[in-house]
Specification:
single chain; 332 residues; Fumarylacetoacetate hydrolase, domain 2; 12-stranded mixed β-sheet; 25% helix; globular
Length: 332
């Protein structure tokens, strides 16, 4: 099943709605509306049906995933019973981030990207990459969806993208094995780890992980494909287009660490939550750094992954510069 989130205008402001996506029929189905109609047909009052539908299909994808099996089971039943009555053309909806993750964790697993990234920056990959599946934590509050405009940060002269897979966690995970962790995944989406390369370079020297080099935006979408539908994760074709022209192509095959190993490691002595997004790291050829292509205002970026879809965003003008730190005098 393909599941996403859209924004709908109401007299009280914009609200998020969970939808089932059917690209073959060029439509999305508002799951809460479909379930309301299904419950009413079974004898529930409108108020009771609305309370039930809103509980199973809130605006939060993470909250819905946390309900467990009843979420997907009810989604299938609602679409089958009343999908036609709650459908909207795909072309008319306003997409938002496919999931509202409690936390974003971004790994580094694709062998070709690791090699090519380090070649571009003139460094050797650290052998620590072979010891543990490293990752950084990103803010979930700047997640953007399909067709959103992403302002180019005013503080960067090297605006970049990173084409990745985003694994969505399906239940609370604590001290799991890789096999257990693989079974705990809910689905997969496309993840764009937008990057300010010049600021990232400085932050890496500090050794505390990325901050302003990453946290200004994370692209998630256009929708989530559940694990039962996506099938294998090691044979996905991954393509980058800028302004309609294909720039690069990669494949999800060659990794240092599997998705199960990534999640299992993250769950050690920690509680990973339903709806958390775990990113794969960039696929080989999946960043502008690897092909010497910076993004500029007005560029339209399309990241396509087979069996998932296409995540498209436009680079917008920078926000107004208010303040930026000045270099301090050396004190050691």
């Amino acid at each position: 099943m393909k599941l996403g989130r859209i924004s709908v205008d109401t007299p009280f402001g914009a609200v998020s709605r969970l939808v089932a996506v059917d690209p073959t029929k060029n439509r999305v189905v508002d799951l809460a509306t479909a379930e309301l109609l299904r419950r009413q047909a079974k004898g529930a009052t409108r108020d009771a049906a609305q309370r039930f539908a809103s509980a199973i299909f809130p605006g939060s994808m993470s909250a819905a995933i946390a309900l467990g099996d009843i979420f997907l089971e009810t989604a299938h039943e609602a679409v089958e019973a009343r999908g036609d009555d709650a459908a909207t053309p795909i072309s008319s909806v306003n997409w938002i981030s496919a999931v509202d993750p409690p936390l974003i964790r971004d790994g580094l697993t694709f062998v070709k990207h690791i090699r090519q990234f380090h070649e571009r920056v003139g460094a050797e990959p650290t052998e620590a990459l072979l010891e543990i599946p490293g990752y950084f934590k990103g803010t979930p509050f700047t997640a953007v969806g399909h067709d959103a405009e992403v302002p180019k940060p005013f503080y960067t002269d090297y605006f970049d993208y990173e084409l990745e897979l985003g694994y969505i966690v399906g239940r609370v995970c604590h001290n799991l094995t890789p096999d257990e962790a693989r079974k705990a995944l809910f689905g997969v989406t496309i993840f764009n780890d937008w990057s300010a390369r010049d600021v990232q370079k400085i932050e890496l020297k500090i050794g505390m992980g990325p901050g302003k080099g990453k946290d200004f935006a994370f692209g998630i979408g256009p929708w989530i494909v559940t694990m039962d539908e996506i099938g294998r994760l090691d044979d996905l074709e991954m393509t980058v287009r800028i302004n309609g022209k294909e720039c690069s192509r990669g494949n999800s095959a060659e990794t240092v660490w599997s998705p199960g190993e990534l999640l299992a490691y993250m769950s050690i002595s920690e509680y990973v939550q339903p709806g958390d997004l775990i990113a794969s790291g960039t696929v080989g050829n999946g960043s502008g750094l690897e092909i010497d292509r910076k993004l500029e205002v007005g560029d339209v970026l399309e990241l396509e992954v087979s069996r998932i879809g296409t995540l498209r965003n436009r680079v917008g003008p920078p926000e107004e510069k208010r303040w930026w730190p000045e270099r301090r005098k050396k004190f050691w």
